[in-house]
Amino acid sequence: MEQSRKEPVYPPPQAIHHELRNAENSAGHVMAKLHSMREINPHLAILDVGAGSGTISVTLAKAITDGHVTAIDLNPEILPRARAIAEISGINNIEFQQGDAYKLPFADETFDITYCHQMLTHLKAPQDALREMLRVTKPRGIVAAREGDLETECVWPELPGVLKFHKFAADMMSAAGGTPIGGRQLLPWALKAGVKRDQITVSYGTWSFSTPREKETWAQAMAERVRGGRLREGGLKSGLTTENDLEEMATDWEKWAQRDDASLAMMQGEVLIQK
Amino acid sequence: MEQSRKEPVYPPPQAIHHELRNAENSAGHVMAKLHSMREINPHLAILDVGAGSGTISVTLAKAITDGHVTAIDLNPEILPRARAIAEISGINNIEFQQGDAYKLPFADETFDITYCHQMLTHLKAPQDALREMLRVTKPRGIVAAREGDLETECVWPELPGVLKFHKFAADMMSAAGGTPIGGRQLLPWALKAGVKRDQITVSYGTWSFSTPREKETWAQAMAERVRGGRLREGGLKSGLTTENDLEEMATDWEKWAQRDDASLAMMQGEVLIQK
């Protein structure tokens, strides 16, 4: 990805693989509904909760040129990176701000579409965040979520360091209060947030890598995460991994990317809630 | 599903869930290519290998009204059922015959598209079947496969009998010489069959159930499989399960289908090989 000349624009290691996301590959279940809503009202207001570097938010903003996207993240350090990506993309109908999914800094019934990806699965009480997302959504608006289900990860070849990484990543998610089986729980979380079953459409999508370029990008990102950054620090501090294991993981991700027969896929749970 | 008045038309328990398949939900990765090939040649010849009850074959035949589908299965007992389904569907441009994927009863370069679903994963030497599929395919034709990857199955709620079923089904696949991680191995199998990497497009799809009707159909099929039919017989004979366990599986599938918060998904590996 190209980078702006303004600083700070370099993504932290934990953000690189998230920046592969866009509306097409990570919000596909929302787009048909978005397009039909845009026909009726071109001035849609969209909220992206836990937007990270904002690569999905920016592509959502491209899809509603007469509308507006608000993208929030709990971590204020990612905001300059997100703003740089929007600027590089030439997108103006977007704003980024710090915000907590449990206490969204918006009035009731503000947005037409409230969206999140790979956010609820990190929370101790995902149903509370969904309730907040519903609160800030207009009547007849939609709340949409897409969350990876790490336990469905399917990788070939099954190199030892790659399998070790998978277990380590799942353990870290659980240790931080999230869950590696989030994708399959979007429906129960929505029901716990007070939504009726007939308001909810469930689907499943995938997230996969098989071309040399996709594999290299993914493997480099994973290697960087275990050689530096939050995942490494947290893993060593908590005793969930060792320096030797981390190096084995990085090396095997690099070997994996070089293999002609390698691919990786993970399932993503999806819900579309009609308010 | 409606049934013809001719006998034998009732599916055996192991076929019921396979009859949920059609070209849309099980050959999506092939359809764009099929449509572009049909533009050039409306008289396409398609081979469906391991077609079972032929529900995918029939929908492929619908997509090429001026073409012809040949559907084969190793088990001759399923052929009357497949013919009945084609007849009910009003499809004439199709024929069903007995045939072995390892020794396809066709001359070299006979078909424009050679397809299989949930077939290679049951074989001891899937690369040999792929080599046969390539043999009977015309130059510039395509070989397409889609295979479930059972280990990616993602189910909620995680009822004990349902988890037990998952392990039992995987053990039975392995015991019969197949693999529960077939979906992720389509690429290595194609390479072993002698295909070059740049002739192969890899993708992943899903197979999921979340509406009351989908869940009931799936759960009933699974309950029937463990209360009667080949899976039950084989499981008891091999000692991989017990009567008590089988009854727990059936009961928990039925409970699962009744739950508002229940859903199930499994990833499917996909390859499209350009000959």
Automatic annotation (TrEMBL), chains A, B:
Keywords: Methyltransferase, Transferase. One of its GO terms (molecular function) is methyltransferase activity. This is S-adenosyl-L-methionine-dependent methyltransferase. One of its GO terms (biological process) is methylation. The keyword Methyltransferase applies. The keyword Ribonucleoprotein does not apply. It holds the Pfam family Methyltransf_31. InterPro entries: Methyltranfer_dom, SAM-dependent_MTases_sf.
